Amino acid sequence: xxKYLLLILSFVFTLVxxxxxxxxxxxxxxxxxxxxxxxxxxxxxxxxxxxVRNQWAGFDGSPKTSCISLHGPILNKNLGVGFTLIxxxxxxxxxxxxxxxxxxxxxxxxxxxxxxxxxxxxxxFQFDFNAITLKASESSIYSxxxxxxxxxxxxAGLYLRxxxxxxxxxxxxxxxxxLYDYDLTLDTTGGKQGNYNISYRLRTHVIFTIGKSFKINxxxxxxxxxxxxxxxxxxxNGDLNLNFFMYNKxxxxxxxxxxxGPGFLMQxxxxxxxxxxxxxDTGLRNARKLGPSHxxxxxxxxxxxxxxxxxxxxx
Length: 315
Known about the structure:
Elements: H1 2-19, E1 47-54, E2 64-74, E3 79-90, E4 93-107, E5 113-128, E6 146-161, E7 165-172, E8 178-187, E9 193-201, E10 205-212, E11 214-217, E12 220-230, E13 236-246, E14 250-257, E15 261-269, E16 274-281, E17 293-301, H2 306-309
Antiparallel strand pairs: 1-2, 1-17, 2-3, 3-4, 4-5, 5-6, 6-7, 7-10, 8-9, 10-12, 11-12, 12-13, 13-14, 14-15, 15-16, 16-17
C-alpha cells in the first residue's frame, strides 16, 4: 500500500507541480500571447484567439485546457494591451484564471521592434482530494476533501521582432506563491502509520523562443523555431519546430518535444481575417500509453492589411 500511495502522490502532485504545472500548448506558435505577455500588439491589429486542448485523450484525469485571448496595439501602436481567460484541469486539480496585459513597444528602426510586457491575473484553484483513489481502502486522505485557493499572479516577458525574425523570453509566477503545505499521518497495511507531506507551489516557469523565416520562392516559406522551457526546479524540455507556409494560405509544421515525442500542426487562413488551426501529438515509448493529444484553435484578426496578416513572422 505504501508503494501505491507514493506512486499516486508522485504521479498526481509531482507531475502537476514540477513537470507540467502550467498548461501545455502546441499552437502557441500561432498565438504567443499564451506564453509571453510582451507579444501583446505584435499583430498590428486587434486579434482574438480561442483554443481547446485535450491532452492524452482517453486517459482518465488527463489535462484539458481552454483559453481565449484578445490583444491589440493602442496609442499609435506604442502600447499593446490584452486580456486572457484560462481554464485548466488535470486529475484532482482545476484552475480558472483571468489576466490583464500591457506591453510597451519600442521602435528600434523601420525593421525592428522590441516589446516589454507584463500581465497580472487572478487564479482560483480547486483540489478534489476525494478524486484520489487508493488501492487499500483502509488508507485515506479524505480529511482534506475539497479545498479551494485563490492566488494573484504576475508574469513578464521580452519580445524582439522584425519581418522575418523573432526572439522572446518570458517568466511566469514571479512570486512563487505557495497554495498549500500539509503534513499527513496515514494508516498503512498492518495497522502501522506513515508520515507524508503534500504541497503545491506556483513555481516560476521560464520560456525562450526564437524563429527565422526563409523565402524559398513566392509560394513557399520555411520558418523553423526553437522553444526551451524550464520549470524553475532544474527540469525542462524543448521543442524543435519545422514550419512551412504555402501559397499565402496554409501553415504545415512538424515538431519534436524533448523527452516526449513528435507532433504535427497546421493553420489555414480561410480569409484575411479568419484562421483555423489544429495540432496532434503522441509520445514515444511509455508516454505513448497515455494516448494522443489534440488541440484546436480559431483566430480572428480584425484589422491590418493582408500582407501584414500573412507576413512570415506572424506564425
